[in-house]
Design a protein that fits this description.
2 copies of one chain form a homodimer. Chain A has 282 residues and is of the alpha+beta class. Chain A is built from 8 helices and 15 strands.
């Protein structure tokens, strides 16, 4: 069952004129809730706020958002929280109203479970055909224009392939359909620069911190499929899955090496810590 | 007042889990209704169907769509009809359900009126800063991922500037925020090729027919701002505005020449004809 609040009210009735539905004019974030604690909620709200402001969408008050989340969690203590902030309705065609009123849609979905082996033994990935268009004005933002990801995820149905890697228009590796990607090459962790497309994930920013903390060199780089093929280790992250090593991309095998293991341990430690200290809600 | 039907029912209650709201996973078309006749409806439905199928969205039956439109027009005889077709709800994250059920949202908005002088004496346009990302898989489709247009239309508020021209990532002129663009250069009509981005408008396809009919050479080309500056005439089209000559782009003046006038006359003739023969609804 999905519990859902629109602007704080329990309803399943969305205004069809909302610009989120009309144009995908909004941003979102997805995060797991464990034992009543939405993990890394502050980071998700910070990212949402940053993304909304880049699009000129006024950000709702933190206290309204916290009150909504608290209401949802009073009924159920675990699941996947999805927060959407749109520019609301109004304006003339594409032109936004001069003073838009944001709309917030917050849903608590049932927990998502993936096989434990994904995190332990790694997953199999493929490359997607569809590319990511380049647009610095939208790059990094987790906005609601996600047709490229929908089409990418439609490309395969083989359940043994767990994630698809996406290239940009110029042929650079950018991300998975729902994850950020990292490779380990000659002792250095590389992750795609997200200045022209891609989503700047909360878990990605945690990996950047982890690398700093653990003393692993990490660089944001232009990565090619050849660069990935030459790497020793590959791993993927997002807020729901945490970290998945990649053991196979279209037949090429990768090991789960020291960097992947150390970063994974650091993330699990921080996640447990976040789960304990997350008393900010409710 | 806006009348609206969702899957044939008069309601203002949209499912927030609809993939149109979640991901912009849908297509749309906008067309004027005059004296009970939705202009060029068949062409709009053909384009919608083509766009939906390119995205793998099953297209609703023509008779359902016609029944909806007929219901809306039984209350009001004039306005702007907006038809949205989404992939419905369901699936797991970006992954669409194996057998999606399309959702149709059809709204009749009040008539939009623009000053008559726009069509007669031409309009003033500017170039937008934000560029269009390149993605052949989405090029030409009037899909619901329209953040680029929203941001482009947010760039100016000076009411004397009526439309903004958009370049693609490589610097080619592609379209206006809400219109297709044509230039007349050395006796030839040129319009941007839409193989990498842009929306293939219904009125654009009518201009292509007009040129053939009138014996004007017309080419789809890669157009640059320099190419536009070197042109003698510039005009814009969409289904609601018809044709607007452009008399000024950032200070550079253009004349309203023979090609623009002849194409405009042809379009007005066909539009009157469509208005009379459009007995297919209601």
């Amino acid at each position: 069952m999905i519990s859902l609040l629109i602007d704080g009210r329990p309803t399943n009735c969305l205004d069809p004129l909302d610009r989120g539905f009309q144009y995908g004019d909004g941003v979102f974030s997805t995060l797991p809730v464990h034992a009543g604690v939405p993990l890394f909620l502050d980071r998700h709200l910070d990212r949402l706020r940053r993304d909304a402001l880049r699009l000129g969408i006024p950000f709702p008050s933190r206290s309204d958002l916290m009150a909504d989340i608290s209401t949802l969690l009073s009924h159920r203590q675990a699941g996947i929280l999805k927060i959407q902030i749109t520019r609301g309705s109004g304006g003339r065609g594409y032109r936004p109203p001069e003073h838009p009123t944001a709309m917030r849609v917050i849903a608590l979905h049932p927990p998502v479970t993936y096989p434990e082996e994904y995190a332990v033994h790694g997953i199999e990935a493929r490359y997607c055909e569809i590319r990511l268009g380049l647009n610095p004005a939208l790059a990094g933002i987790k906005h609601m224009n996600r047709l490229e990801q929908v089409l990418a995820r439609s490309e395969w149905s083989d359940p043994s392939i767990v994630e698809g890697l996406m290239l940009d228009y110029d042929g650079h590796v950018i991300e998975g359909t729902m994850s950020n990607v990292f490779v380990v090459s000659k002792g250095c962790i590389l992750t795609p620069r997200l200045d022209r497309c891609g989503v700047n994930g909360v878990m990605r920013s945690l990996v950047l911190e982890a690398a700093g903390d653990l003393g692993w060199p990490l660089e944001e780089a232009r990565l090619t499929p050849d660069g990935v093929a030459a790497a020793e280790e590959v791993f993927l992250t997002n807020s729901v899955i945490g970290l998945w090593p990649v053991r196979d991309i279209e037949g090429q095998r990768f090991t789960i090496g020291k960097a992947t293991r150390k970063i994974g341990e650091w993330l699990r430690y921080k996640t447990r810590q976040a789960g304990r200290s997350g008393s900010s809600v409710g």
